[in-house]
Design goal:
By secondary structure, the protein is of the alpha/beta class. It contains 9 helices and 12 strands. It has helices spanning 14-25, 47-50, 64-67, 80-93, 106-114, 129-144, 167-180, 239-252, 262-265, and strands at residues 4-9, 29-35, 60-61, 73-76, 96-99, 120-123, 150-157, 188-189, 204-210, 217-224, 227-234, 258-260. α1 packs across α8 (239-252) and α6 (129-144) runs parallel beside α7.
């Protein structure tokens, strides 16, 4: 199998530029396309130059269908509407679709699941090794502790992030809920303000902070009688997410159709 030819969706964004740099540094992967939205001022620009690299001859384009003709996969850290538009084309072309987009709705998730009988999709709220190890630990600790330990999830991101709680926080909440053998949707507490009353037993609470340039800080607090256990992860550079996404793409190349997670990629699935 030759080099994996990859398209970067949102090539002009922070994550897109990081993905372009990581692809250039990784044996076995080459940049096959750089996608931006129609009307973007970056269309026609060289993707390498945008990423702070020497020119690589890959021009930013809005025509995903054309660029997928000579590609094996797409790395997609964009916005929900763009990701859903990309899903059908990636599936039609038989591309590996690595999705790191957050803020996806239940209906968006249903669209993604609908193509996985014929397409390989790797989807995760966070692509880092550390966060996925953290999720595995959260699930185990939640399983070990009873409801006398309240679970709270605190996250902080840069001021430009548009969704809350973060996809990673929700992923950690799902891990905690799985450990407790409950559904997160029925045990989620968000946006406390004013006279909220006492905390409901069994809830998994979320708090979101926004400011500065924080790449992503997440803590899961198990608060029990007279003691607290805190599990944390601090991302110092978004390059680690790009590296994880590329690892996922290379792992998924040649896999049978299905919906996979980073836990599958890292061998953490139970």
């Amino acid at each position: 199998m030759g080099d994996m030819r990859l398209i970067v969706a949102g090539a002009g964004g922070r994550m897109g530029r990081a993905l372009t740099r990581v692809i250039s540094e990784t044996p076995g992967a080459v940049l096959a396309g750089a996608l931006e939205a129609p009307g973007s001022e970056l269309l026609g620009k060289d993707a390498g130059v945008l990423a702070g690299l020497p020119a690589n001859g890959v021009e930013v384009s809005a025509d995903l269908w054309s660029m997928t003709a000579k590609a094996d996969g797409i790395l997609d850290f964009t916005v929900p509407a763009a990701t859903i538009a990309n899903v059908a084309i990636a599936a039609e072309r038989g591309l590996v679709h690595v999705i790191g987009t957050t803020g996806l709705s239940p209906s968006d998730d249903a669209v993604i699941r609908s193509v996985t009988n014929r397409a390989v999709v790797v989807k995760s709220g966070n692509m880092s090794l550390g966060v996925n190890l953290l999720a595995a630990l959260v699930k185990r600790v939640a399983r070990s502790l009873d409801e006398s330990f309240d679970i709270e999830i605190l996250e902080m991101h840069h001021k430009a992030k548009i969704d809350a709680p973060s996809g990673t926080a929700l992923m950690l909440g799902e891990a905690a809920a799985a450990g407790r053998n409950v559904q997160l949707a029925q045990h989620s507490a968000r946006g406390r303000d004013g006279l909220t009353g006492a905390r409901r037993a069994g809830d998994i609470g979320f708090a979101s902070l926004r400011g500065g340039t924080a790449a992503g800080d997440h803590s899961v607090i198990f608060a029990g009688p007279s003691e607290r256990i805190t599990l944390s992860h601090h991302a110092e550079d978004r390059t680690l997410f790009a590296q994880g996404a590329l690892k996922a793409a290379l792992w998924a190349h040649g896999k049978t159709p299905g919906l996979y997670s980073m836990a599958d990629v890292l061998g953490l699935s139970e």
